[in-house]
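Deliverable D4.2, example record:
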Amino acid sequence: MVAHEGVRARILGTDLAAHVARVASFGPEEPKLLEGYRPNAPVITFQSEMKLHVGDHTFRLVHMPGHTAYQAAVIVEEEGVVFTSDNIFCKVHTWLQEADPNLWLEALESLRGLREDMFVPGHGPVCDKRYLDEQGAFIREWVDYVRRRGVERGMTKERCVAELTAMTDRYPMDVSLRQPVDPPGRIAPYQPVGPPGAGRSGNPWRCSMPLMRFSGQPARCLGIPGGGRRPPARGRGPSASAP
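Output generated by the structure prediction step:
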């Protein structure tokens, strides 16, 4: 496995019993699926960027924190394709649990600056650079919504989580433990972006607000171990080749 060095550190530093218990709480079928689970920490790591040469293809891995601290985009140069990780949720609900919105917006601009224009997102159908505006607008709107409706009114984090749910029906859920997307397993094909709010509404399952804290800047979020931490400054990572 190849990943950012922060992924390895986080896996090795996680309390496995607590992690399994947390995941098991997601639903009645989860505990059985986790029997005998052992984490698989990456054996090749990088800090900022790495290239892997595999056969006739070049895979360029670039650290792009945002949705999580240590995720990376994988660029397949010969194909003009970018696997964006979870910095793009195309036409499905965006999850912000442990996101840093500022870094996320920076990552979207980094994706915009690539010469490649075919994006395979972490969630939703394949899209292109036209969708970056819609993704960024949603993040900005959600941060502003929580600030204006919650923080500036003195609401506690717990009240924000419980009450600020107005934006959770903007898009369908592609991951739901309680009720499937309607129709099951189907997501509408990508269409050119429209104005914020153009997505499907009336989602059948309203989720709670992400856990956020504010410190004079846009939201920094809290999550499972390591959530909310700003990743280390980007350095120059190693380069590796595979036969």
